[in-house]
UniProtKB/TrEMBL annotation:
Domain 4Fe-4S Mo/W bis-MGD-type: 240-296
Source species: Pseudonocardia alni subsp. carboxydivorans
Name this polypeptide is given: NADH-quinone oxidoreductase
Matches recorded under SMART domains: Molybdop_Fe4S4, NADH-G_4Fe-4S_3
Keywords assigned: 2Fe-2S, 4Fe-4S, Iron, Iron-sulfur, Metal-binding, NAD, Oxidoreductase, Quinone, Translocase
Lineage of the organism: Bacteria, Bacillati, Actinomycetota, Actinomycetes, Pseudonocardiales
Annotated CDD domains: fer2, MopB_CT_NDH-1_NuoG2-N7
């Protein structure tokens, strides 16, 4: 937009191409064609009151609070017009409430109408103190009302889901919530009901507001009609301490705001970051924060005594015991380091440096999940050392003509990526292709063409996706997004790499955990050093040795599975573990065995776990709310955050490791996150330059009588360790099912809605049956949902064979 100063008509400058010229409150302005009038006013700094308008929602004109006076061709329109639905036009003259008594009177009249039935419950309303209706009633309303009739009332609150409560009498029918749900999330569970004076927001009687993004409607509601079950009546806005933050639940790195009171986090809100999450958060990022104060939280060091019990100890004693045990282990057989994928980049760097400088090994792997050597090659070739300037970004996904998603379901594993895909599909007709076993809810909402693949054989589908897919990916700007589940399918990372080389499409790596990308950059891998350097690169090692003042091992280390195997066999004498849940590993039983059998085990964690029960020393570390640092999101973008709660008595991983290193006669210089970040920044990043993987494509296993090939993946809201103590959030989780297609159900004697049992020789999972478009001979289970913990229970994973039959049927055993 261009502001045009006063000028002589004969010397008038030309209107830029694609723009129109109009006058607003006496100011001449050039604005892009098609721009809404209210947006043009915003750019001029002219504030127009509104309720229904939102920059990320389609215009509705529902509340009529933004009325302005408009002239076209010298003739005033007979009535004030809604500036949120009218687009700018050449020669238009606009007068807002600042220069037009008529517009001001109209806005006051609308406000008077909105307040006819609005309850006088500001002292108890959760929105009180941050309510647009309060603010605009004071600024643009009348001091008294002509309406004195009894106000309309409803029973309150109405629970439209387990975590969203509706106070119907507060609603001004702005339709922000219904438009968000339908347009942005694609979940039209909430809608306008009835007609005329009885019109109200509601849900179908048997269909609650079950959306992964429902919490956004609470935040954008301008009047407090929608409230959070977890926050309702907990505090007033002016009693809260607000701190900008970054979500720790997935690799998107969403901007958020943490509101706390008296040392307790009470709520999370979405931050405004147009480059990343715009103004949205998924419900897991918004509501899953109570783990910081759960009963299982560890706040004091623990040391295992001679009688086998874990007892609280001082930091001095715990660090001394840990150092003594690790020094002995280093001399006896070596130390393995398993940092986990929930770390800030500073903490991941401290683990990477601890492994090389203190433990003297490259046996470090953050991937506390199924992984592969092929994945290591892929990360070195396509991910390590990348930045938003030379990598795929949210904006690139939104603007892409075509996107292929492989090894991930964005709605379940990276909600904000899903919202960008849906936005691109709605606004520009994005062609989305998704390689997967069945058409998920997210695939439907992004208009995806599903390339059905039998688990374990996805590489063949990617290698030959069809001429239509190849042609779409050959368009400039096309993107391939590959998730970390690709590691479970042999040859899939290689097929993705080859397809990208063939079509010219850009590759984006979309891991599920928040710390995964930062751990790659920090060098928490057996083949990669900090800054995207290869372990096998002598020059890179020399560069690090000069900065660290210590030798760097030259031989690539073991990956996570090999580290655990070596610990179980006695080849490694000790393990240092950072917040790893053994249940997430490819073989949880083997992981537990390794942790039990290893000679010495040190665990850094915030909450009791299966590792706690086996550790010799437990060193408590600070959760995100009590530490500062940064995540590196899947784009390679650094996402910094500060301390939200009092951090007295708790330490970040980097400080604990630094102090432990000093006890072992080595200084890491990572006393603070800032120190660790500064050293990593001085090292700089570079593309690792590894060779693209070229592995043989896997083959699908052939099921025998009563068997099926198992497909499994996680749901966003499940039994994840950071979702504890969140009953309202858990109430919106999608119900777990045994999913099969109709032909497979008939072959296995399964009935939709009835229960089926999936078995192996280790255990069984029984859930209701749901029919979907899976390939023949394939059964799907959620990986970590209530009643369906696949790997701990069955001991198998994606692509393995399982026995399936009706519940209680002996033939399924």
């Amino acid at each position: 937009m261009t502001l045009t100063p006063e000028r002589n008509a004969t010397e008038e400058t030309p209107v830029p191409e694609g723009h129109v010229r109009l006058t607003i409150d006496g100011q001449v302005v050039d604005a892009p064609k098609g721009e809404l009038l209210i947006r043009t006013c915003e750019r001029l700094g002219i504030v127009i009151p509104r309720f229904c308008d939102h920059p990320l929602l389609d215009p509705a004109g529902a509340c009529r609070q933004c009325l302005v006076e408009v002239e076209m061709g010298g003739r005033p329109m007979p009535k004030p017009q809604a500036s949120c639905t009218m687009t700018v036009a050449d020669g238009m003259v606009v007068k807002t409430q600042h220069t037009s008594e008529r517009a001001d009177k109209a806005q006051q009249g609308v406000m008077e109408l909105l307040l006819i039935n609005h309850p006088l419950d500001c002292p108890i309303c959760d929105k009180g103190g941050e309510c647009p209706l309060q603010n605009q009633a004071m600024a643009h309303g009348r001091s008294d009302s002509r309406f004195v009739e009894t106000k309309r009332t409803f029973p309150k609150p109405l629970p439209i889901s387990s975590q969203v409560l509706l106070d119907r009498e507060r609603c001004v029918l702005c339709q922000r919530c219904t438009r968000f749900s339908e347009e942005i999330a694609g979940d039209p569970f909430i809608d306008l009901l009835e007609r005329g004076a009885k019109q109200q927001i509601g849900v179908a009687e048997d269909q609650p507001f079950q959306s992964y993004f429902s919490g956004n409607t609470i935040q954008i509601c301008p009047v407090g009609a929608l409230t959070s079950a977890a926050y309702r009546f907990r505090s007033r806005p002016f009693d809260l301490r607000s701190t900008p933050g970054v979500c720790e639940h997935c690799s998107s790195g969403c901007a958020s705001r943490t509101d706390s009171r008296r040392g307790t986090v009470l709520r999370r809100l979405a931050g405004n970051d147009p480059e990343v999450n715009e103004e949205w958060l998924c419900d897991k990022g918004r509501f899953a924060f109570r783990y910081t104060g759960s009963q299982g939280r560890i706040t004091r060091p623990l040391v295992r005594r001679a009688d086998g019990t874990l007892e609280e100890a001082s930091w001095t004693e715990a660090l001394a015991v840990a150092a003594e045990g690790l020094l002995a282990a280093r001399a006896a057989g070596g130390i393995g380091v398993l940092p986990g994928g929930r770390l800030t980049v500073e903490d991941a760097y401290a683990y990477a440096k601890f492994a090389r400088v203190v433990a003297g090994t490259n046996d470090i792997d953050f991937r506390a999940r199924p992984h592969s050597g092929e994945e290591l090659e892929f990360l070195a070739a396509h991910v390590a050392g990348g930045t938003p300037q030379d990598s795929v970004t949210f904006t690139a996904v939104e603007n892409a003509p075509a996107v292929l998603t492989v090894g991930t379901d964005p709605e379940e594993e990276s909600g904000i990526v899903f919202l960008r895909l849906r936005k691109a599909y709605r606004k520009r007709g994005l062609r989305h292709f998704q390689v997967g076993p069945f058409t998920s809810y997210g695939a439907e909402k992004t208009g995806a063409t599903v390339l059905h693949a039998v688990p374990g054989a996805e590489a063949a589908v990617v290698a030959d996706p069809g001429a239509d897919v190849v042609a779409a990916l050959e368009q400039p700007g096309a993107v391939i997004l590959v998730g970390d589940r690709a590691a479970e399918s042999p040859g899939l990372y290689s097929a993705v790499s080859a397809l990208a080389a063939r079509t010219g499409a850009a590759i984006g790596w979309l891991p599920r955990r928040a710390g995964d990308r930062g751990a790659v950059e920090a060098g928490a891998l057996p083949t990669l050093l900090p800054g995207g350097r290869l372990v096998t690169d002598a020059a890179a090692r020399a560069e690090l040795e000069q900065v660290w003042g210590a030798p760097v091992p030259s031989a690539p280390g073991r990956d996570g599975d090999a580290i655990l195997a070596a610990a179980a066999s006695g080849e490694l004498a000790a393990l240092v573990v950072g917040g790893v849940d053994p249940q997430d590993m490819a073989d949880p039983t083997a992981a537990i065995t390794a942790l039990r059998e290893v000679g010495f085990l040190v665990s850094l964690e915030i909450h009791t776990s299966a590792v706690t029960e086996l550790a010799d020393v437990v060193l408590p570390v600070a959760p995100d709310a009590q530490r500062s640092g940064a995540y590196v999101n899947w784009e390679g973008r650094r996402r910094e955050f500060g301390v939200a709660l009092d951090a007295t008595g708790v330490l970040p991983d980097c400080r604990v490791l630094d102090t432990l290193g000093v006890e072992m006669d080595a200084d890491l210089f990572t006393q603070t996150p800032a120190a660790a970040a500064g050293e990593l920044e001085r090292l700089g990043s570079r593309r690792a330059g590894g060779v693209a993987p070229d592995h043989t494509a896997g083959q699908a296993r052939r099921p025998g009588y009563g068997q099926a090939v198992l497909a499994t993946s996680r749901q966003m809201i499940d039994d994840g360790s950071l979702q504890i103590d969140e009953p309202a959030l858990a109430g919106t989780a999608r119900r777990p099912y045994v999913k099969v297609n109709a032909a497979t159900a008939e072959r296995l004697a399964l009935v939709e809605g009835a229960e089926a049992t999936v078995r192996t020789d280790r255990g069984a999972i029984t859930l209701p049956v749901a029919l979907t478009d899976l390939p023949d001979g394939v059964v799907w289970l959620p990986t970590c949902s209530p009643g369906s913990h696949v790997r701990p229970t069955l001991g198998v994973g994606h692509g393995d064979l399982v026995t399936v039959g009706p519940a209680g049927n002996g033939s399924a055993s």
